[in-house]
TrEMBL record:
It is found in: Membrane. Pfam families: Claudin_2. The chain crosses the membrane at residues 15-35, 148-170, 182-201, 221-244. This is CLDN1 protein. It comes from Tachuris rubrigastra. Coiled coil: none annotated. Keywords: Membrane, Transmembrane, Transmembrane helix.
Amino acid sequence: VFPCGRKGTMMDNRFATALVIACVLSLISTIYMAASIGTDFWYEYHTLSPAENVSEAGRSIWEEFFSKEADEKTYTDALFRCNGTVGLWRRCITVPKNSHWYSPPENDMTTNCISFSLSDQFMEKYIEPGNHNSGTDLNRTYLWRLQFLLPFVSIGLMCFGALIGLCACACRSLYPAIATGVLHFLAGLCTLGLVGCYVAGIELLHKKLPLPDDVRGEFGWSFCLACVSAPLQFMAAALFIWAARTNRKEFTLLKAYRVA
């Protein structure tokens, strides 16, 4: 829904087109942002020797991964060795469907996930992952908390902007489109901050826990959706603000001309 024209005036087709495009961009960015939050492919690990998952050592790694007492180092090691993926809310590894020693080791694999609890999201990170006596790593702690909070702030701002747009339509006014544009701009900043926090957090983690030689890590498609969402939000914000300000100027000039 986009803000309607001022009562008693005709909105130029340029403004209507700009508002329609802005609304479409806003909708797409909201869908992308929601999809990225709800999926588990922000970062992916690929090991060159997944057959180790069925060995005794491999089995103990992924059994510890699902333990409630698993710390950051424990579940990160499992992600390294078991083709893991990490999202904002869950972490997943690839394990054999049948864990018996006599089962064939190849092909029959499945992905199992475990969610980060709310306390996990606000838990302190340590200078040496897994060592509670090493002190708190403030950088990683606050980066982790921000990457959890910022996407919800971003979606909230866009939803609030949509609500303002609906109210503007009811009032038949174009001016609130400026507020909608500002809210989308702030949402874009939050999304951009989320992407930056996530990248910085991953880089700092890998400095503490370097990737093994036979493991490759890469950002996944969920992360890419968030990256695409940010510029869409900025473009929608620019169109909303441009349409409102330009239409306001033309209305002022038209009013002055009629008075003259």
